[in-house]
Amino acid sequence: MGSQRVIESLVGLFILAAFAALVILAFKVSGLTSFFKQEGYTVTAYFDDIGGLKLKAPVKVGGVVIGEVTGVTLDPASFKAIVKMNIYNKFNDIPSDSSASILTAGLLGDNYIELTPMYSQDVLKNGSVIEYTHPAMILERLIGQFLFRVGGGQGGSKTETGQANVDSGNTPAKAQPINVNNEGAKSQ
Questions:
Q1: Is pLDDT larger for residue 23 or for residue 166?
Q2: Which residues on adjacent β-strands are paired with residue 101?
Q3: Which contiguous run of DSSP H or E holds residue 9?
Q4: The dihedral formed by the CA atoms of 116, 49, 103 and 65, expressed in degrees to the nearest 10
C-alpha cells in the first residue's frame, strides 16, 4: 500500500513538471514574456511604411538575431513610423552608418528588421538614430503593381508595335486591329 502511494505521488509530480514545462514553452514561443531578458542599448529608426511589424519582432544582421523591436509610434510632424529597437550588448560594434530594412520571413511570414552594416568607424550606441531605412514591401501593393503593368496600365493594352493603346472611353464598340507588314505600310 505504501509503495502504491509513492508511485502515485511520483506520477503526479511528473505530470505537474510536464505541465509547467509546457506553460513555459508556450510563453517563450509566443513572445508574450521573456524569462531571460537580455540587456542592450536602444536605437531608433524612422520608416515610411512598417507593414505588419510588431513589438518583439526580431532585429537581425545576416540572419542572426541581435535584438528586438521595443516600440512603434507615429511621428505627428512627418507621419513616419518611429521604431525603437533594443540591440543586445554583446553586439556593440555595429557601424553607425548601417541601413535598416523591413523584410518578411518567407512569403507570408512575420516582418522583421534587417540591419545592413556599412563601413563607418563609429558604432551604434544608446540613443543612436539609423539614418538609412527601407520601408516594408507590402505584398498587396506588389501584386497590384504587377497586374497594372501586365494590363498595360490605365486600362489600356499594347498594340503589335509595342505602343500603348489607351482606352479613353470614346472608342467604338468594335475596334478594327491595325496590322503592320514588313515594308512599313499599314493594311487593314
A1: 23
A2: 114, 134
A3: helix 2-30
A4: 60
Residue for grid cell 537581425: 60
Does the predicted TM-score (pTM) go above 0.70?
A: no
Question: In terms of Cα–Cα distance, which of 69, 68, 81, 117 is closest to 96?
Answer: 117
**Residues forming beta bridges with residue 86, ordered by sequence position:** 42, 68
Question: How do the domains of the chain map onto residue ranges?
Answer: 1-36, 40-135, 139-166
| Lowest-confidence pick of 24-28, 79-83, 86-90, 114-118 | 24-28
Where does residue 154 rank: exposed (0-12), middle (13-18), buried (19+ CB within 10 A)? exposed
Name, in order, each residue with C-beta under 8 angstroms of 55's C-beta and a sequence gap of 6 or more: 69, 70, 71, 72
Closest to 109 in 3D by CA, of 28, 31, 54, 29 = 54
